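User: Predict the full complex structure for these chains.
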Amino acid sequence: MEKPSRRDFLKLITNALLGLGGLLGLAGLIRFLNFKPDPGPPSEFDLGEAMYFLPNSRTMRPDIPAAIYQASGEYSALSLSCTHLGCTVEEEGEGFICPCHGSRYNKDGMVLEGPARQPLRELRVEKMEDDTLRLYTK
Amino acid sequence: MIKRLVPLFFIILALGMLLFASSEAAASASLQGTPTPLPTPTFDIARLDRPETSDPPTQLDQGALYYWGVCLACHGDRGQGLTDQWRDAYGEQDRNCWQSGCHGTDHPDWGFYIPKTNLAPPIAGAGTLARYTNAFELHAYILETMPWWKPGSMTTQEAWAVTTYLLKLNNTQPMGIVLSLSNGSAIPVHRSVSAPPGEKPGALLLVIVMALAAVGMVLQAAPKWMGSRSFPATATRPNFVHHLHPPSIPAVQARFRYTLGAGGLAVFLSLVLLVTGLLEMYFYIPSPEQAAISVETITTLVPFGNLVRNLHFWSAQGLVIVMVAHLLRVILTGAYAPPRRFNYLIGLGLLVLILLLNFTGYVLRWDEGIRWALVVGTNLLKTIPLIGEGFYEFLIGGSEPGSATLTRFYAWHIFGLTSAAAILIGWHIFRVRRDGGIAVPPPAQRADNGRITRFELLRREVLAMVIAGLLLLFIGLLLPAPIAQPLSSTSTDISESRAPWFFLWVQELLKYGDPFLLGVLIPLLVVLLLGLLPYRLPHAKRENLGSWFPRGNRIAQVLAVIIVLGIIILTIIASVTS
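Assistant: Here is the predicted structure of the two-chain assembly.
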């Protein structure tokens, strides 16, 4: 290979420096655009006093969205987010139906009819020391 | 050999970049506020000791000290409020605040009354401070109402310090941020945030790299040191950017002491404005409630956000100066003579557009700093006979400035005026080439008939951009762009009453009489006079082009200097007197 002239070498270094400058700018740009100003939705919900959830009842909370069950003193909850594409499902008899694409679930959140394939997600409910319920969506 | 090493070099660089970028992910993790534990039944007297502070005390230390000395008696040592448990920490005779001699209904002159309900509430723990979303609101409330027995006695510094301490009690103290009017609105009360890792090291590295590249570009053009006169190497193929330039131009057209590089610099600053403006749009929220807060978010919380905003601000200010220098150069060298008359008018139109862009951009801050500039600037339009009222309402979208005004100024700033400016810039550059390049004498009368290639021209342009970019980076790192607390309808603070600096001369004129004459007609007359220069006054001779102060257009030169000096003097008077 031919020995590069002094100018070729200088040009190479200069272009490399300009390239490095560009990459530095790009790194800064990525960090700038990566910032998320919004904290995101809450993942814990205070459901109020446990005594208001009657035995063998189902309470719809579309704002969370979740359905809270009480069965023989045990509390449980189902997410109301359709596992297909995330619309909030509505009550239909014992089970649920999604208004967007018609997925149906039974009362335990199992799929009765597509297009959804996964059952509704179970959420964690805890009874706190002061007899209130707390729901965790994560 | 060297060429084979190039890919390796870039791979190493890319790996370095990844490391650099990932450090941010670790730093941005935030904590949810957790309730402070309630005081234990057995009271440990050591809890009342003077808080330890560092030297010099931080803002948090100052807040802790002030709280310890003033707030603690009622709000508790842990922010628990005036609970029974907390009152038990007092001496026997002071436990019942309402029966003691100091705080009952019949308190003596030096005492004060404490209502029995809803006073000295808890200020730390779950559910407290629910009224406040950001630190600025909390600070404003403390400043106005606290301490209970002497509201209004705190300084703003003390109020910010106590605000920081309250956030600390709630585990949401912003890490690495000193609270002030210029960032308080961006700091949430119920969520912890932290300052982005410093932007200075990264930016300084960039400055060093670009400075070295500039040295490389200068050295490449030093023929003696390089051992040959031909530049660039013979077999170079022109790329796209080269093709935007003519194959070669007369060397006299590219002489810095003639052109000042002002036109090219204006293009460069416009590009910087475009890029930084696009970046700001990712975080700016054009609503009256959110605008100023989002600007504070960009400056305090977004990595490199402060730098981006400073670059946008300083490029805009620099652009006005560079454009005026460009205009003066064109007049003082007689370069606007036919066939360049029309392009001169396009340039003048661009100057007006850029001033409008600067003004609309200034208003988008929507903080206390812009209050009077917005009111005065738009009220001036009302003074125009017949069409004034209609024009005013069209511009601000209502009968007084409000949310529609912000939306409209935003639309004008990011789209309407920007599109118009982009079209005129393209046209202006096209006309420069169409009119035979920069004004110089015909070949026979030139002192130097040498030519430079497009390669050399581009090298000089890139060099000028690198140097200008370096300067801009320095200024952007050292000088922060102005910012104030969010614009509010109730604020009684004295806001900045000065116009933005490029309209200070108009503000000064307005002090002397009729607003329509002085605030509308005279600025219009200035533009009209400048626009008529090439059409009503004698021109420089062709052989005298390309040098400063040709004899032919002396009248125009004197007129332009008088106008610019007049504006500068008015600006100086305005900035000295107010």
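Confidence is low (pLDDT under 50) at residues 18-33 of chain B.
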